[in-house]
């Protein structure tokens, strides 16, 4: 917990910087969020790792990736190092500074460095110490025209989300007896994706490894059918997690990645449906 | 193809019964309707007569009625794995059934080693890994069919 009511001026590095504060205890999280907000940072709070991953997914989709992620007093490995690893190994958040406040007693500095955490403070710290670590790990002041300052916008068309040879093959199957074959397949696939994602999420939430294996396997197959190879690759990883019964925080990270790839696949399929 | 079924969401389409006797008849059993549609189109374009069935349940009945030469079975379906389906089907078909000599081929996105083990366990004629390369799929299917003298003869006949 922060201990002294110091009043420290914000730095230019802090003003407008988007920060995600992840805390199992919302009251502790609110204290840190209030302090960062007081320094001019735009703070988003998440209660626990699962909510953090959802928030990150949403922010990434809106091209509003945070400039700082604070993991505050995690109560489990999954909510601390596990979450840090999931974030730091995700290409979308590469280079995003991670800091941990009040790590669990058994966590070493080497553990934190290995998980991609650039700065940390023990259980008791002052505002000055918090400010010092934040300034040390964050980059230069956010640019008014930089990516963190851009307004929210939808994902852009990424042609590499699809294997276009598959689309060409499917289009080649169109005939007078199958006049809108590709269009029909894409419509049905997209219609089915919410169910596939829900099934995988429910499996992870309930800790049901076999259900995850089966649902991810099914979604992998459907996605490959339509050439959504990047999404299929993430599903294959999720299937493997289910097979190995490894349902942890990085599995939730994979779910977030699947949701991200799905959005890209949908856009690319709609473009393909209209004839590329 | 004529849709049949007992409920609106049941996806069971068959065209075997109405088809001419010469081409090889392939029944595809897979719970994914998109896979069924794609395989139906690919196999039809390749000259096979195709039946599609979206659940393992009722397959024996369809086999008796439509006498497919080959049943292509998905491995990972809810409730039943492909090898179990084949075992159950063989149990349900008597030697006197006209479709008793139907061959089974497993078809799945399951890992190759696991698929091979399931093929041996079930006595299936072969196993094909799911692929979005239709030409490779058809080539593999043809190779496997040639393992059966009866199917090979049918394939070679004009």
List keywords for this structure.
heterodimer, A: 276 residues, alpha/beta, Rossmann fold, Four Helix Bundle (Hemerythrin (Met), subunit A), five-stranded parallel beta sheet, 53% helix, elongated, B: 158 residues, seven-stranded mixed beta sheet, 7 strands, 40% helix, disordered N terminus
CATH class of chain B: Alpha Beta
CATH class of the largest domain in chain A: Alpha Beta
Percentage of β-strand residues of chain B? 15-25%
Mean pLDDT of chain B: 82
Taking all Cα atoms into account, the compactness measure Rg of chain A is 21 Å
Structural class of chain A: alpha/beta
Rg of chain B computed from alpha carbons, rounded to a whole number of angstroms: 14 Å
Taking all residues together, what is the mean pLDDT of chain A?
Answer: 84
CATH architecture of the largest domain in chain A: 3-Layer(aba) Sandwich
Overall morphology of chain B: globular
Spans of chain A of 5+ residues with little confidence (pLDDT < 50)?
143-153
Structure overview:
- The complex is a heterodimer of chains A (276) and B (158).
- Chain A contains ten helices and five strands.
- Chain A has 276 residues and is α/β, with parallel strands linked by helices.
- Chain A folds into two domains: 18-149, Response regulator (Rossmann fold), CATH 3.40.50.2300; 159-273, HPT domain (Four Helix Bundle (Hemerythrin (Met), subunit A)), CATH 1.20.120.
- A five-stranded parallel β-sheet of chain A has the order 2-1-3-4-5, sandwiched between helices.
- In chain A, strand 1 (18-23), helix 1 and strand 2 form a beta-alpha-beta unit.
- Chain B is an alpha/beta fold and 158 residues long.
- Chain B has one domain: 3-Layer(aba) Sandwich (Rossmann fold).
- Chain B contains six helices and seven strands.
- Chain B has helices at 33-45, 59-66, 82-92, 112-122, 134-145, 149-156; strands at residues 2-4, 12-14, 25-29, 49-53, 70-74, 103-108, 126-129.
- In chain B, strand 5 (70-74), helix 3 (82-92) and strand 6 form a beta-alpha-beta unit.
- In chain B, helix 3 (82-92) runs parallel beside helix 4 (112-122).
- The A-B interface holds A 163, 165-166, 169-170, 173, 175, 178, 181, 184-185, 188-189, 192, 214, 217-218, 220-222, 224-227 and B 31-35, 37-38, 41-42, 45, 76, 78, 109-110, 130-134.
């Amino acid at each position: 917990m922060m201990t002294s009511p110091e009043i420290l001026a914000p730095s230019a590095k802090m003003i407008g910087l988007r920060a995600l504060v992840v805390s199992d205890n919302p009251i502790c999280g609110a204290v840190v969020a209030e302090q960062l907000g007081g320094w001019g940072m735009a703070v988003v709070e998440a209660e626990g790792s699962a909510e953090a991953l959802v928030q990150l997914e949403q922010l990434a989709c809106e091209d509003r990736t945070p400039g700082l992620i604070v993991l505050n007093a995690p109560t489990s490995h999954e909510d601390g190092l596990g979450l840090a690893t999931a974030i730091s190994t995700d290409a979308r958040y590469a280079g995003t500074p991670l800091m941990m406040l009040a790590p669990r007693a058994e966590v070493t500095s080497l553990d934190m460095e290995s998980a991609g955490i650039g700065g940390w403070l023990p259980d008791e710290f002052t505002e000055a110490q918090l400010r010092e670590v934040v300034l040390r790990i964050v980059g230069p002041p956010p640019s008014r025209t930089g990516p963190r300052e851009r307004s929210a916008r939808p994902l852009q068309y990424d042609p590499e989300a699809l294997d276009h040879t598959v689309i060409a093959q499917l289009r080649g199957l169109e005939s007078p007896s199958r006049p809108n074959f590709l269009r029909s397949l894409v419509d049905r696939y997209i219609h089915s994706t919410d169910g596939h994602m829900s099934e995988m999420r429910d499996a992870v939430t309930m800790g049901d490894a076999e259900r995850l294996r089966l649902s991810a396997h099914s979604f992998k197959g459907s996605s490959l059918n339509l050439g959504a190879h990047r999404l299929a690759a993430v599903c294959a990883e999720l299937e493997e997690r289910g097979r190995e019964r490894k349902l942890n925080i990085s599995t939730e990270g994979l779910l977030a990645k699947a949701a991200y790839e799905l959005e890209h696949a949908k856009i690319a399929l709609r473009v393909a449906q209209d004839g590329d | 193809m004529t849709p049949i079924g007992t409920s609106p969401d049941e996806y069971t389409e068959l065209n075997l019964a109405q088809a001419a006797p010469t081409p090889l008849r392939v029944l595809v059993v897979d719970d994914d309707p998109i896979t069924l549609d794609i395989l139906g189109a690919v196999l039809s374009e390749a000259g096979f007569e195709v039946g599609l069935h979206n659940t393992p349940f009722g397959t024996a009945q369809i086999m008796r009625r439509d006498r497919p030469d080959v049943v292509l079975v998905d491995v990972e379906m809810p409730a039943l794995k492909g090898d179990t389906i084949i075992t159950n089907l063989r149990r349900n078909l008597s030697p006197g059934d006209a479709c008793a000599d139907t061959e089974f081929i497993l078809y799945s996105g399951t890992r190759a080693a696991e698929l091979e083990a399931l093929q041996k366990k079930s006595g299936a004629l072969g196993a094909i890994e799911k692929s979005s390369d239709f030409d490779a799929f058809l080539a593999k299917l043809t190779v496997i069919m040639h393992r059966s003298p009866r199917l090979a003869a049918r394939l070679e006949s004009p």
